[in-house]
Amino acid sequence: MRKFSWLIVTAVVLLVFTAAHGAGGFLLGAAIVGVPYLIGCVLHPRTIHRPCRGTGYHRSPWYVWGTRRCRGCVGGIQVRHGARAVGLPHVREEHRTRTRAIAKRRQDRTWR
Fold first, then answer.
1. Quick check: helix, strand or coil at residue 93?
2. Cα three-residue angle 110-111-112, rounded to 5 degrees
């Protein structure tokens, strides 16, 4: 399921449960949508970096043979937002390590 579809389904579930049962329905709807998301973040903590499509490189729009390293990731994979907050400790540490590596490359101006 795509991210946008997931957001629409979440909004519809919350709206329907809130309309049917009020504040308690909102909490029930949030639990129905939130628990599978949290389980998914623990079981599948990484995702492909969309701007570089998981390659770790960007292609030039004019010269298709020209590439450069991706500025926003290390190797094309990134940790999901939910896994950064509620994931396992080694996944959170991986995110911190990658964030530090990206910041260091930008500071040293070696990210291009």
1. helix
2. 95
Mean pLDDT by 10 residues, the chain (112 residues): 76 86 85 87 89 86 85 84 89 92 85 60
Report how far apart the first and last C-alpha atoms of the chain are (Å, whole number).
Answer: 33
What pLDDT score was predicted for residue 75? 82
Would you state the pLDDT for residue 111? Answer: 61
Same domain, 15 and 70: no
Q: How many alpha carbons fall within 13 Å on the CB side of residue 104? A: 7
Give the closest residue to 77 by CA, choosing from 105, 110, 101.
Answer: 101
Cβ proximity of 84 and 96 under 8 Å = no
One domain for residues 34 and 63: no
Output the six-digit token pair for 50: 């969309």
Residues forming beta bridges with residue 68, ordered by sequence position: 58
pLDDT at residue 60 in the model: 84
Confidence (pTM): 0.67
Domain identity same for 61 and 36: no
